[in-house]
Input
Amino acid sequence: MINSGDTAWVLISTALVILMTPAVGFFYGGMVRKKNILSTIMMCFAPLMVISIQWVLFGYTLAFGPSHSGIIGGLKWFGLIGVGQLPNADYAATIPALAFMMFQAAFAIVTPSLIVGAFVERIKFAGFLVFSILWATIVYDPVTHWLWGMGGWLRGMGALDFAGGIVVHVTAGFSALAIALVVGKRMGYGKDNMEPSNIPLVVIGTVLLWFGWFGFNGGSALGANGLATSAVVATNTAGAMGATVWMILSWLHRRPSLLSVATGAVVGLAAITPASGFVDPLSAMVIGGVAAVISYYIIVLRMKFRIDESLDVFACHGIGGVCGSLAVGIFASKAINPAGANGWLYGNPALLNSQIFAVAVTAVFSFAATYILAKFVDRFVGLRVKENEEMVGLDISQHAESIV
Amino acid sequence: MKKVEAIVRPERLEELREALDSKGFSGMTITEVKGRGVQRGITLEWRVGDYRVEFMPKIKIEMVLNDTDVNEVVDIIQKTCATGNIGDGKIFVYPIEQVVKIRTKENGTKAI
Output
């Protein structure tokens, strides 16, 4: 039976999450050099176009359609045939199946835009488009099926992912690392100045992400209820803690920079995502804070290894997602969500095992599949722009546009 | 006739303009420029660690003056813009061959 409150909340949450896709563009756009701002925003915006279509045609049915051995959904719902205004009780009993589909579409759209941070300022737009559509089909849709699809094999093993810590952030983070290795460093990386061109734009992106995250995590309750509220509280608390911790780390280094605060917020929000519907506010605080410290030093390490994963998708989303997903195994409580499970602190250490397993499988699969896919696209379409195109900047060379 | 060109800190501009105005030197052209001297730019805080800004924002002031006024103006600029810190800028003085006032077609010192 459709509940109008639940439906309204999920539709609003869908809009909130959709807003996060251009927000990622502002977040990343402000961090690149002036000659690549438009290209960066364009690449983050592109999934809103192409993945919206991919999802309706076959993405949704691959992720959520009737399962083939827990590995992938079939093509039964190709073109959304059979996905209608009545609820599908397998996924959400009180909202139209189409509302659930559209809410999930917003997740499928935002995930490829997160990966953009890995290869900004040097990627060929055509190669990027082909990569993103194939990535959504080969990496995102199957992993979503494993964890969230009816009959998905990781779900069957008891792994929990409330709002996409594994499905969204671990896939995006480890894929970002893989494709960054294939595309290679920017010209002049570590030598030339790569000053962020517009820090206020980064902050606009950050606050829109924070705002959208209430829909991302709160909406994942799939109802307008206490659990949604609990997820919203956990989300805000972890984001605040991530930002605060990162501010302190930056202060210890020199001065508390706005750029570091914005980054810490995103790390805290990413980390709480898988746990937001399973943990209490104090646990959320620990999760946001611990993830911020770990991610910070992962970036330090990444720079030491001179890997140009340019905007640290791996550290922020990959590591944030790993921290939060493992934390589910420790802090999850049935008192918060009876449909979930208890974690280690509540007498069930077994949950941590299934969390570790699901994270490891997803990380390895995302990295390996993306590495092969990126090599493939590089070979047949090309992923890297020519030297002079890179020097002039992607705004002009890829889009014939310029902000100046 | 001489041209005085000074590269100064942007934050000193308003005080400098007032000081020059109060002595009757009202005409000047300013440009927002970037540059570097012995200071070589600065290191700022990135999300983690540093990033370098190699060229610092400065203001370039250009004034064309009678020879007799040059020392006074140079003096005002130097006094007003000196903070004692690295990055205070420099003053250059050039000879000027000809000046023409476009509205009246007057030239030479009358056009200044």
